[in-house]
Write a structure and sequence with these properties.
The chain has one domain: Spore Coat Polysaccharide Biosynthesis Protein SpsA, Chain A (Alpha-Beta Complex), CATH 3.90.550.10. By secondary structure, it is of the alpha/beta class. Helices cover 30% and strands 25% of the residues. Bound molecules: cytidine-5'-monophosphate.
Length: 242
């Protein structure tokens, strides 16, 4: 069985504030994308990594990866307008021998290699779609826009309509793992733009299995996530894990 890992890395990351594309921002002096690709290539079960780069940044990403010690075969393709398009383009570029595909966001640079192997292992054990999930920490409420009041300034107020039980909810991370044929079919038949790949498999009515996620696989979205990531890297260095 040949396992490939696709890394959608073509997003701008506007929620982080102005600057370079998110995947090229550095953590501990190393671009996020390099951290993510290293985590995948260090996993025992991953044979090949395919990066979907910003369409105008393919050469830059190739040069960047060549500069760093990656340790696995890496292909770079041009990504698309949405995350889903970026994954679809990388899927098209996979060699025929690949039968298991992981999809891992560059925006989750510190996902442990053990998590990568756990997801790949579950697919190799026969599950056609596997996602890592973690319980939710916060209380979850559904809201609706409140009534606008005369002279109200700033963002419109919101009203709580329901408190949702969180016991059967999970926050879903990446890497997500798939039987290649299933993921290719899910993308080919996609009739909506979703924020993850397992969602497309769910729309085909096929089962998606959840395995235990990792706190360190958090997604870097807001500026405070960068601080947390730097702290995780400091701790790994102190423990000799880097
Ligand atoms: O923006 P967000 O954090 O949800 O992006 C998730 C992942 O999808 C990131 O790694 C980002 O680089 C990637 N992406 C992409 N192509 C796009 C938009 C996002 O590869 N057009």
């Amino acid at each position: 069985m040949t396992v490939a890992a696709i890394v959608p890395a073509a997003g701008r990351g506007d929620r982080l504030g102005p600057g370079q594309p998110k995947a090229l921002r550095t953590l501990g002096g190393v671009p996020m994308l390099v951290h993510a690709v290293r985590a995948l290539s260090r996993a025992r079960l991953v044979d090949l990594v395919v990066v979907a780069a910003p369409p105008d940044g393919v050469g830059e990403v190739k040069a960047l990866l060549a500069l760093h010690d990656i340790g696995a075969e890496v292909l770079v393709v041009a990504g698309g307008a949405e995350r889903q398009d970026s994954v679809a383009r990388a899927l098209e570029a996979l060699p025929p021998a690949v039968d298991v595909v992981l999809v891992h966001d560059a925006a989750r640079p510190l996902a442990p290699s053990e998590l990568v192997d756990a997801v790949a292992g579950a697919v190799l054990a026969g599950h056609i779609a596997v996602v890592p999930g973690v319980p939710m920490a916060d209380t979850v409420k559904r809201i609706a826009p409140g009534e606008p009041r005369d002279g109200e300034r700033g963002p419109r107020s919101e009203l709580v309509t329901e408190t949702v039980s969180r016991s059967d909810l999970r926050c879903i991370q990446t890497p997500q793992g798939f039987d290649r044929a299933v993921l290719a079919k899910a993308h080919a038949m996609a009739d909506a733009t979703l924020t993850d790949d397992a969602g497309l498999v769910e729309r085909l009515g096929l089962p998606v299995v959840v395995v235990a996620g990792s706190a360190e696989a958090f997604k870097i979205t807001r500026p405070i996530d960068l601080l947390l990531a730097e702290a995780v890297l400091l701790e790994r260095r102190a423990n000799g894990a880097l």
